Amino acid sequence: MTTKPPAAQPVPLAWTDLTSRPRPAPDVTVRYGEDRLQVVDLWLPADRASTPRPVVLMVHGGCWQSSIADRRLMDWIADDLRSDGIAVWNIDYRGVDRDGGGYPGTFQDVAAAADLLRDTGAKHGLDATWVVAVGHSAGGHLALWLAARAKLPADSALRTPDPLPIRHIVSIGGLPDLADVEASPENGCGTDVIAQLVGEGRDDRFADTSIPRLLPLGVPQTLVNGREDRIVPYRMATDYAALAHAAGDTVDLHTVADTGHVELVAPETPAWAEAKRQIRRRLQPS
């Protein structure tokens, strides 16, 4: 009797497997501030006859640190969506490691980049009343936070009038619970970054920054997570989904087997195919 050897486990993608590829270019870059990262890349489908069109507001990750990643990390999936007829508003922002970043600057940048879509989207043929926010990793947290802006405490430095409305959030390998991240050394971003992000010396650092404290968002949410993600432990998705459900929000968790963190934003993978399927579903106005 022979014994079959165990099936070989797929080798997780490294960041260089993605970033060493030829880089596609956006159609337009617009500015919302003076810093080189206070910009947005717009990816427009070739067929522009059907306008105004719904739009994906995309938020990159990188552990909230500009030295790790900027908006260009999303170029390949933004291009994939563009090729599939979907417009993408891919925002950048100052991370906690950049002058002016941290609290409140990182959040204020993300908000300003989003509201620029509301203010200028029409001239690009975009329907700013039908926006799906899509974020990867730390960007998943920020995409959820954009949808929560109307729930911010009245005395928050992050609160602004008339924030851009979000119709749906697709968080891809996201980190929504900042208190959990800070208490979990097994996450790939570490724990020290959270103090810089939420502001030290404040009485309640998570009241206007961490998503569980802002629940219910009142906006439907889709989570796409890799079961073998070594940067964002899978339990962070299940724990957050349980909290959001308990608060009354509609949350769907889609788990992709044999998938790590990079695969979630690599266009050829089953993980990105699932994320794109969810995005496309949510872009159809009913």
What is the end-to-end distance? 59 Å
Mean pLDDT: 94
Poorly predicted runs of 5 or more residues: none
Please state how the strands of the largest beta sheet are arranged side by side. Answer: 1-2-4-3-5-6-7-8
- Tally of extended strands? 8
Report the major sheet.
8 strands, mixed
Rough shape?
Answer: globular
From the helix content, strand content and strand pairing, which structural class follows? Answer: alpha/beta
What is the C-alpha radius of gyration, as a whole number of Å? Answer: 18 Å
Order of helices and strands: HEEEHEHEHEHHEHEH
Helix content: 25-40%
Approximately what portion of the residues adopt beta-strand conformation?
15-25%
Number of helix segments? Answer: 8
How does this model look, in words?
The mean pLDDT is 94. By secondary structure, the protein is α/β, with parallel strands linked by helices. The radius of gyration is 18 Å and the shape is globular.
Features:
globular; 286 residues; 8 helices; 8 strands
Give a nutshell description of this structure:
This protein is α/β, with parallel strands linked by helices. 28% of the residues lie in helices and 17% in strands.
Task: Give the secondary structure arrangement, pairings included.
Layout: H1 15-19, E1 28-31, E2 39-43, E3 53-59, H2 75-83, E4 87-91, H3 105-120, E5 126-136, H4 138-147, E6 168-172, H5 178-182, H6 192-198, E7 221-226, H7 234-247, E8 251-256, H8 270-282
Parallel strand pairs: 3-4, 3-5, 5-6, 6-7, 7-8
Antiparallel strand pairs: 1-2, 2-4
